[in-house]
Amino acid sequence: MDRRLIVIGGQAAGLSAAARAKRVDPRLEVIVFEKSSRIAFAPCGLPYWLEGEVPGVDKLSRYTPEEFERERRVRVCTGVAVVAIQHSRRQVVLSTGERVGYDALVIATGARARKDLPGAEQPHVFTLQTLEGAEALSRFVKDRKPERATVIGAGYLGLELVEVLLRWGLKVRLFEATGGFLGRSEPGMVQWVREYLERLGVEVHLNEPVREIGARQVNGYPSDLVVLATGFQPNVALAEEAGVRLGRTGAIQVNEHMETNLPGVFAAGDCVEVRHIITGTPVYLPLGTTANKTGRVAGACAAGRRERFEGVAGTAIVRVGSLAIAATGVSNLEARAAGFDPVTVEIQARDKPDYMGSRPLYVSLTGARSSGRLLGGVIVGEFGVAGRINVLATALQARMTVDELYQVDLAYAPPFAPVWDPLLVAARELAKQL
Amino acid sequence: MDRRLIVIGGQAAGLSAAARAKRVDPRLEVIVFEKSSRIAFAPCGLPYWLEGEVPGVDKLSRYTPEEFERERRVRVCTGVAVVAIQHSRRQVVLSTGERVGYDALVIATGARARKDLPGAEQPHVFTLQTLEGAEALSRFVKDRKPERATVIGAGYLGLELVEVLLRWGLKVRLFEATGGFLGRSEPGMVQWVREYLERLGVEVHLNEPVREIGARQVNGYPSDLVVLATGFQPNVALAEEAGVRLGRTGAIQVNEHMETNLPGVFAAGDCVEVRHIITGTPVYLPLGTTANKTGRVAGACAAGRRERFEGVAGTAIVRVGSLAIAATGVSNLEARAAGFDPVTVEIQARDKPDYMGSRPLYVSLTGARSSGRLLGGVIVGEFGVAGRINVLATALQARMTVDELYQVDLAYAPPFAPVWDPLLVAARELAKQL
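The joint structure predicted for all components is written out below.
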């Protein structure tokens, strides 16, 4: 009899695992259980759908269950939740009461937006992780015509939501518990992003945690609408009850093959913690790319092929207005906490030759004093930000020194970059100090 | 008495060398001799000036001689050519007849556009490396109102000129001796660029070398105007007469400290050959970035600090219309010639998630079969090309394997990239075949 793989969760990680497993071992029977009616949904697209940049919400689902079944030859059961994993019997219990046996299991139960502030359950408070949440926000704005909105959290989702609310014509106030944006607080970056947001009309409150959401105010400021964007919590109850070990971050602990502590049980996506390639320690950084990559590795390994996921550099990018803000690796503070002796430089350069109508570009780089190794970077600007943060992510993956980064033969032509790319200027400055 | 450094040439490499040397050793007397009246001129900006994208030609000179002298505290003598180097006496002979002694010398004599085709000296034939050449081209078009233009050479300069001529409303025909563009001939890339140029109205003739430029025709096709963009020749006569050794490429041979065979004599910029980081062999690839970098190293070393230039990856990028075409590393053919057992994959992916209005992106990667090492890549598309070629250039500098490239934590957000970046998709495809 053929082996059976059960995948819990029909979004990015689960479907990547299912498709990959079937590809690796075509004789494997693969069944995906997804509790909602929708699979392969891209929640990252929701802010752009709200802004009107995505024409229809159907575009955010890459496949219908039927399409996925046909193309990938796996079974997809939507509207069916797994309510228990009985690993000693190698079976799952479904919301229908049915029991289904497995030889291998992939847990891809995802995450949910944190809603742990007092007052978060009020009808004017929204999170933006599900289509339902986005639709509710959109409906509320149309029906109630709120004027003053509050966004709590200046991570990528909070910043994306600031943009959505601005486009809708609301007055926006942003609260962030830390002193920065995207989890970074390099002074030059913070100043630039803050001033940019202020020019857009946003009232920015850094270092101001919100302890409670009032009916008509937040931290004493009037507010008709609140968007909570303070992060995600992994959905681990099902796994934990089955004896799957969690890590210190509270997410499921896996090795580089996405194996949990239970033999034959893998986990992937927003419910797992992953290794940070700079610090070597597990981190919880749920993101679409990581979900897809870890899902793919989990699927391959569940089907018997030993692939591996090496970890994340913590690369993140967000667009607000015409500005792009990006970070990768660790900050000076995180580097110090991880045992490095870090040095950070900040520069402001131009993104093209002056004669081409250049715009400013901010680069911060952090390196380790003894080894000269590059540890992280932040880039802010209007042009070429994604490409440049990716250069740094590549250098981090390769464990390059700052001096090696300085030697890279980066592309040059007037429409794209100045002769001395801002990355090289920053690397040169940092190399002097290491 | 203080030491004296003489720099021959007041453009990118020469000025970089002069400024760097003075910075490293402030007691050094530095004198730059530049035969023209203009220093720090950016010839790479000329196509954009012709197109009208650069407001005034003055913008293309970064410094006046006076500004440079004041800011960098070196002497700049314009309108003065060095006519001989008498190294046994450690002196140069100037066009004024004067002799000036040196302790160290940097040769940065640059290059000139190749004009070695029969018929190239006719008044309707232009090259585009100097302001005078660009002005002559512009004047010719205004005065004579030619209708049919021919561009010879599909390197970056030829392609930039195609765009200029199209903007001016001319009918453009392009001849290229090889089967590709930018020195690359991966089939998918050639097809894409050819079809794009044809849509713009360009008549593309690949594999059609031009042996002679006629008075009214090129290769039998009528032509009122010809732009010759078949490459550059290093200006080495002065160096060669002084006993400076040339390499096999015909350019000046230097080590990683930009030293020539003569003690105390350095060379940098478009007159030198440099090491290719993939093949390890010397290549002649004159480019603004390399000129600045090698100049800087030559200046530091001439002033007594042992810096080094590790070489080039051959990274190049050009914009034609809304298309960007970029390459780095070596092609399959070049890899084979260098002793690798290369495999090349080509993919066509999307530059963003489909729901964001994605456009196609072409990626070709070449890797080595035994080691798995990445050897080169080509990228064509409308968005995110520069950043992605720079990721590959970084991976080449780090000697990454294709599998390591696949593990890079690239930035993801819907406005910038799809969840599976095209680079990762290509790396995955290539890794399977290595």
